[in-house]
Amino acid sequence: MTSSYERYLGMDRPITRRDFMNGAAMAIGAAVLPHGQVFGTTGAAEPQNQAGYDPPVKEGLRGSHPGSFEIAHNLRDGTFWKTAGKPVDTEETYDLVIVGGGISGLAAAYFFREKAGPSARILILENHDDFGGHAKRNEFHLGGKLQLLNGGTLLIDSPNPYSAVADGLLKKLGIDPSQFEAKFTDHKLYRSLGLRSAVFFDKETLGEDRVVVGTPGRSWDDEGAAENQSPGSSDWADFVARTPLSPEIRRDIVRIQEAKVDYMPGLSSAEKKSRLAKISYRDFLLNVVKADPEVIPFYQTRTNGEWGVGIDAEPALDCWALGLPGFQGMNLEPGSAPDMSYSAAGYANGGSYRFHFPDGNASIARLLVRALIPDAVPGHTAEDIVTAQVDYGRLDRDGAPVRIRLNSTVVGVRNVGTSSAGQVEITYASGKQVLQVHAKGCVLACWNMVIPYLCPELPQAQKEALHYLVKVPLVYASVGIRNWTSFKKLGMQEIFSPGSYWPEVGLNVAVNIGEYRSPTSPEEPMLLHLVRTPCKPGLPAREQHKIGRYELLATTFETFELKTRDQLARILSAGGFDPARDIEAITINRWPHGYGYEYNPLFDPAWPEDQRPNVIGRKRFGRITIANTDSAATAYTDSAIDQAHRAVSELLADAEGA
Ligand SMILES: Cc1cc2nc3c(=O)[nH]c(=O)nc-3n(C[C@H](O)[C@H](O)[C@H](O)COP(=O)(O)OP(=O)(O)OC[C@H]3O[C@@H](n4cnc5c(N)ncnc54)[C@H](O)[C@@H]3O)c2cc1C
Q: What is the pLDDT of residue 420?
């Protein structure tokens, strides 16, 4: 890559990305306070109380942003206590302290207050500069108009219907997903402009840079099950004829997509499913369908968005449930089978309702905060939450029953005293300050893998179980562009790029809710959503996630930016897109600890329910209980809510029994 090419891409352009330096500066500012000097828990020095504090508008590196994870990593590496000052007791006491301000932590506060009453004193400690956990909001003001995207959690959608508890919470917050979906999502906009799904063939993986528009059976509306719906014989033949692929590979792709062949004649549906559960989709294509190995790159990253790994590490049966092709002649009966992953089994049975708020499930987090601290979030409805401006200075005020303290990493949680008269001592760090608070109970709504470091006194078997669930790394980029006339000219709304750095690129979902309006004219600025899931094909899934996480943490913003500009230029320049001129903002939402791990039938034993690592890991420990999606071994918002409810119920049952 030459510097003139980098100039063409616009790497020297002053987009607002440098804001991420503010995040680092904020953390450093806290770090230089002398040891032992206490902020005062709601003091003016607390970053969230500074004028203009508004994390959703920050660009640059978000997600696990600089300043959010270093303390936890030092704790893991055994270096934290070597340099930390002696903890200072704030003498604050609470009925409940919650570690983690994601949807599980916020829901735990909601459920606890429902039972314990509005005067219950609750503190939520969160290591990031914003609440919401994965459910984060990216807020842009492009051409003076508010535009939103999800920095993490995309939408209300789960493999199984929401439980009475999770659905009940949504209803109490004023969300009716089915009604909202029908009322607020504009399914017609892109279609009315003639935009379709496309594939970008890149020269490094697929021989030549070429965009082919009109992927048969694909669009936002029928995403998921579409590929399995035998689109009519001319569709795929016409599509592959326009690709740079060789005639042999084209033939194989048409065969995989359309041929109605039973590759396992003589077996019952159940027997076929059992066999398909034991081989990867890659092996299915190569050894059962007998496809040319050269077709693999076309399909390799098709499962990454769902599970964080490619088709080498996903069972063929799960891929059937996800709608991947090749099974259309196999007469598999609809519905789940015993050896399927959580997601695949659920989706095979139909899944839940769906709705995408413009900022994803950050709207749920914001509604929870409004319910807990009403004067911090103005408004009254699930529609007006979308444009509400959070007053971060009101989240952690002296005397308030519920307080949310950001930029605070918990480093120790300990039962103190006997069960009946005991308390929990919670130690947290904010910069170089190490502070202590006390509570009658504590819910750990943080990630499983950090809990053994917070509670070294846990039984060894429980610590090992907590370590098992390796989270899935992924990155969502939000890119603001000056207009989307290039998409209009090329006739596409989303581009699957099987071999590229960002396999998924698409226009923002069109949703109009409350006072929020999505762009409708290609002349207006627009947000793009890009997805990458770093992994290492060929290894077991958990190993791939670990390697992907190292890659993510080692990647600089400049590399993400360069890859973004390069890929958008290669896909869109034929439509008149100029990367230097047209890119106005880039936010990289980096999630090294992303989706909760769900068991993978290719690699994980079929444990009995009570021996699953998530079940062993979430056991109550004195006055400490454990929430978070990891406790369910899933990666969905409804699980985060259900697990919060269980953890709070365990705590209250213990208190009543004590
Ligand atoms: C990119 C992405 C997209 C997703 N999309 C969807 C989707 O479309 N639909 C869906 O249902 N689910 C989705 N998920 C899954 C999502 O994780 C769950 O929906 C849910 O939001 C998880 O909530 P949680 O509270 O359990 O965990 P989290 O959101 O991870 O919250 C836990 C919080 O605890 C904090 N924490 C950890 N350790 C400490 C400590 N020591 N001290 C203080 N705080 C700590 C963490 O930083 C984090 O903020 C997605 C996840 C990711 C990463």
A: 63
